[in-house]
Write a structure and sequence with these properties.
The complex is a heterodimer of chains A (166) and B (809). Chain A has 166 residues and is an alpha+beta fold. Chain A has five helices and five strands. Chain B has 809 residues and is of the alpha+beta class. The chains are: A alpha+beta (166), B alpha+beta (809). The structure holds FE2/S2 (inorganic) cluster (2 copies). One FE2/S2 (inorganic) cluster binds next to loops of chain A.
């Protein structure tokens, strides 16, 4: 960190998060991860490195999974951001969430929001992915607890449930 | 049974999938400040001066703390309280904290850290156990037997030399297991604040709030009754949050000094420095066998690289040997161990605590023995598997033991008989087994109080609340608590509200370590639930004019066992009980049985029960690149009784993942900077990218089988499942590689370069093995001599006894 001039003046922008437009004021160097967690109170998005290495901070930006620790929040003006807080409809869980809870895909639950968002993007593109496609899709999300097996099973189960109810 | 054994959504599942679980860094309090630590850039140095004046003047900085603010040391083990929250005169590894800045935001903290000037006088760095043994001065610590040795111990159960001398064969092998780290995805965080009347509350991602509570009281010199520790759900534990940590002490002190909430969240790099992970262990096994593959005696020597502080090391040292006799019949056993100090992040407990290392050596050596004797390694193990309800040579009491059935299961399911030594070149299978404890028989500090307490509250709303100090680290302890209470009371697990890990509200539980929670908390929960049930039954039975024991509790109802139509809702029964007895509540507690061994050192190893595991790994080795692919793993675990199959299987597969990770790639290793850059010993790669761990693409399919043989010491018979299944995976992998390409890799991790080196040696006609060549001379003491149970004696030492010492776990 240089000891020179720090830009301390906040930027002031509108962010569209989970379909809701919110006004936010924050230092321009802040990442999307930091703004979500610290300025918008959306602490469901996690971090395990803040260097783009673990996938815990994945959110959807315009439907694509992005590591929010590598995205500057100022770049997100006018884009659609989705976080884990936007998945459930009221008290009703998204099929991925329900399957993750039922099938043991969340142990400590710390990697879970990032994996849920990544899986959501996958199922939106490919409603019936093979197991290999699921493995590839979440290969950037580290999970230390599960050994991934129950995560695959939960994504497959969610895909099944979503097709049945479609 | 209605709840136990049924697959269910875990009680905290909803919170975890909605992002509502509040981890420590998710806590935000009004007027909260932030804290960061300045850490030593040198591995070993004296601190000559610290100047914090410029940092203190930076706008936004509220407080700067240094070593002089912390005169009292701490440490998880009473025998090694060797850490200062902030170092005052000496730093012992790169990452040792020396100062703290508390400011309005993290950015300001970071800027202020740059303004602190520390003058160091470098000292000789001790990088390895061999260097530690050879260096008498400087000493990293002023305690320990001498030089840079932290712990030395020796025990002999029967005359092992005599046993080896009369064996048909004696095998001698040296193995090495590299250190590695927990790598929980959550970076540790802690928030401290003042509560009403000036008491302190600390929210922290700790596995052991109770021990942290004690150490905080010691360091802050405050009565423990004015400190409350709340363990937030851990974003993975694996042993990495068992030690009280510097940042927890310092953030607490800062909040007390400033009267405002203060938060610290460690960076990933700092998490690598806090470490407390797997000890690197060099070990030598000398094992005697008969022609038909029975063990006659084992002489095991271990040498641990402990890093810069004691941590759990006194216990870890014991665990590199004490569980060796729990898997197979072993008439005599000698075990010598030594832990050294080095200038590296301290090692401590990681999943399996000290035991995966000797299991690796033992199980690989058994494979070599079977090969030499021309026996099938599965058959050989079946013949010598430890018997239920027996004592081991070192006086551990084995209860249920389903090892033989575990072996049969994996042999059958993997098609072992068709594959072993029969697959085409480059493909192979390997088998290994293990046993693990279900909680340490003794607490970390000696006392006669319960290891776990559960309190239940119930009221006319029908609500049942279960309180316990146990800590949810992802393993599912909250779910186990709810399930136990629900089963006894005949309600659903989701009908039990659980409140855990809060020293201000919940009865003491010693913490989430040594696979103790299911057994100890579970036994306490059943006791509490039975007491509550008795009251409810007494009140309800008056309605029907029957004896209370004629009632049954199930499906949310209380009814006559003889006539289910006569009954009432559980809630109505509670109303009757509340009317009859007043406010309803109950408590239960659990303390493990006294261990049979009475010699000095007998405190490490005893457990209420032992779990058993057998594993088969299949591999494909690319002879050109040394690359190892693992298509499938079969694992059978003797769990006693499954509580929630969804969670139990998750623990097994997660353990397999972590064992495979250690076997194939993970290593916490160090390098020296070039001389022009201080020559310091630094962590080779303190980042998630460079520290290689398996991704979803590396993880094979795992077939899990449970063997259920309920253990009478355990709640509903349930034994542990969180750690044991890790242990057989690394040796099974090594054995599979031998089956595939005929080379022995006697050290972990087994990387492609080692496989290639071994293949080259094989091609040249040399011994096709890569591993440590020799075991250094270690000044082990004269052993404590204890006759094994079948050679007379009463569990006491007959030589080298010394005073009986409680050795915690
Ligand atoms: S926090 Fe690890 S990738 Fe963003
Ligand atoms: S569930 Fe703990 S890291 Fe994935």
């Amino acid at each position: 960190m240089s000891q020179g001039v720090m830009v301390r003046r906040n930027v002031h922008i509108d962010l569209r998060v989970n379909g809701e437009t919110q006004e936010a004021s924050f230092a321009p160097y802040k990442t999307l991860l930091e703004v979500l967690r610290e300025d918008l109170g959306l602490t469901g998005t996690k971090h395990g490195c803040e260097l783009g290495e673990c996938g815990a901070c994945a959110v959807l930006v315009d439907g694509e999974p992005q590591l929010s620790c590598l995205v500057l929040a100022v770049e997100c003006e006018g884009r659609s951001i989705e976080t884990v807080e936007g998945m459930a409809k009221g008290a009703e869980l998204h099929p991925l969430q329900a399957a993750f809870a039922d099938l043991g895909a969340a142990q400590c639950g710390y990697c879970t929001p990032g994996i849920l968002m990544t899986a959501k993007a996958l199922l939106e593109r490919e409603p019936s992915p093979t197991r290999d496609r699921i493995r590839e899709a979440i290969s950037g999300n580290l999970c230390r607890c599960t050994g991934y097996q129950q995560i695959y099973e939960a994504v497959e189960e969610a895909a099944r449930r979503m097709k049945e109810s479609a | 049974m209605k709840v136990i054994g049924k697959p269910r959504r875990r009680v905290d599942g909803w919170a975890k999938v909605t992002g509502r679980t509040r981890f420590a860094d998710d806590i935000v309090l009004p007027r909260m400040l932030h804290m960061k630590l300045l850490r030593s850039p040198l591995p070993h140095a004296e601190i000559e001066a610290i100047d914090v004046s410029r940092a203190e003047k930076l706008a936004g900085v509220q407080l700067v703390l240094t070593g002089k603010d912390f005169p009292v040391t701490f440490g998880i083990m009473p025998v090694s309280q060797d850490e200062y929250p902030l170092a005052s005169d000496r730093v012992r590894f790169v990452g040792d904290p020396v100062a703290a800045v508390i400011a309005r935001d993290e950015q300001t903290c970071t800027e202020a850290l740059d303004l602190i000037e520390v003058k160091y006088r470098p000292l000789k760095t001790i990088a390895t156990p061999e260097e530690a043994l050879a260096t008498t001065e400087p000493r990293i610590h002023e305690y320990g037997p001498h030089g840079n040795i932290h712990r030395l111990q020796a025990h002999e159960f029967g005359d092992v030399e005599e046993a080896l001398g009369s064996s048909d064969y004696v095998f001698e092998d040296v193995f090495f297991y590299e250190g590695n780290t927990h790598l929980a995805i959550e970076q540790q965080a802690a928030v401290a604040a003042l509560e009403d009347a000036g008491g302190l509350v600390l929210y922290s991602s700790t596995q052991n709030p109770h021990y942290l509570h004690r150490e905080l009281a010691r360091v802050l010199q405050m009565p423990a009754s004015r400190i409350r520790v709340v363990a937030t759900p851990n974003g993975g534990g694996f042993g990495g949050r068992c030690d009280p940590a510097n940042h927890e002490m310092v953030v607490a002190k800062a909040a007390l000094a400033l009267g405002r909430p203060v938060k610290i969240c460690l960076s990933r790099e700092e998490v690598f420095y806090v470490h407390r992970g797997r000890h690197p262990v060099l070990m030598k096994f000398r094992t005697g066998v008969t022609k038909d593959g029975r063990l006659t005696g084992i002489h095991l020597q271990t040498l641990l690289d402990g890093g810069a502080y004691g941590s759990h090391g006194a216990a870890s040292t014991f665990y590199t040997g004490v569980l060796t006799p729990t898997t197979y019949e072993l008439p005599r056993f000698k075990f010598e161990a030594c832990r050294t100090f080095t200038n590296k992040p301290p090692c401590g407990p990681k999943r399996g605590h000290g035991t995966p290392q000797p299991r690796f050596g033992q199980e690989v050596q058994l494979d070599k023995i079977a090969e030499k004797l021309g026996l099938d390694p599965a058959e050989m193990r079946l013949r010598i598997a430890v018997k239920p309800n027996s004592l081991t040579a070192n006086w551990l009491r084995i209860g249920s033991a389903g090892l033989a059935e575990c072996i049969r299961q994996v042999v059958e399911r993997s098609g072992w008989k068709e594959k072993f030594r029969k697959l085409p070149e480059g493909r192979g299978v390997g088998l290994a087994c293990s046993a693990y404890m279900c909680g340490a028989g003794l607490p970390i500090y000696w006392n006669k109080m319960p290891h776990s307490g559960v309190q239940l509250l119930a009221d006319r709303s029908g609500q049942v609340t279960a309180l316990c100090g146990a800590t949810e680290i992802g393993q599912g302890s909250d779910d186990v608590l709810a399930a136990m209470v629900a089963e006894v009371l005949g309600i659903g697990a989701e009908d039990v509200r659980v409140l855990t890990g809060d020293t201000g509200l919940t009865p003491v539980d010693l913490g989430s370590y040594s696979s103790r929670v299911t057994v100890m908390m579970g036994n306490a929960a059943i006791q509490a639930a039975e007491a509550l049930k008795a009251r409810i039954a007494e009140a309800a039975s008056e309605q029907f004019q029957v004896a209370p024991n004629r009632l049954e509790f199930a499906n949310g109802r209380v009814f006559l066992a003889a006539d289910a139509s006569k009954g009432m809702a559980f809630r109505e029964a509670i109303e009757l009980a509340e009317a009859k007895f007043g406010t309803l509540g109950s408590v239960g507690s659990y303390r493990p049985p006294d261990p049979p061994g009475r010699y000095k050192g007998a405190g490490a190893g005893p457990s209420p029960a032992y779990s058993y595991t057998a594993c088969v790994v299949e591999v494909e080795v690319d002879r050109a690149t040394g690359w190892i692919a693992v298509p499938k793993i079969w694992i059978a675990h003797d769990i006693g009784r499954v509580i929630n199959p969804v969670l139990a299987r998750g623990q097994v597969v997660g353990s397999v993942y972590m064992g495979l990770a250690e076997a194939l790639m993970e290593e916490q290793v160090f390098r020296r900077l070039p001389p022009k850059l201080s020559n310091a010993l630094v962590h080779k790669f303190p980042s998630l990218l460079e520290y290689k761990s398996p991704t979803s693409l590396d993880m094979p399919e795992v077939e899990t089988v449970f063997v259920e043989d309920p253990d009478p010491n355990c709640p509903f018979g349930a034994k542990e499942v969180g750690q044991g299944p890790l242990l057989p995976v690394p040796p099974a992998l090594a054995n599979a590689i031998y089956d595939a390409v005929g080379v022995r890799i006697d050290e972990l991790p087994i990387t492609p370069d080692k496989v290639l080196r071994a293949l080259e040696k094989k091609a040249k006609g040399e011994e096709p093995r890569v591993g440590p060549e020799h075991f250094p001379a270690v000044p082990y003491p004269e052993p404590v001599v204890v006759p094994p149970p079948w050679e007379g004696g009463d569990g006491n030492a007959v030589k080298g006894a010394g005073p009986k010492v409680k050795v915690p776990a």
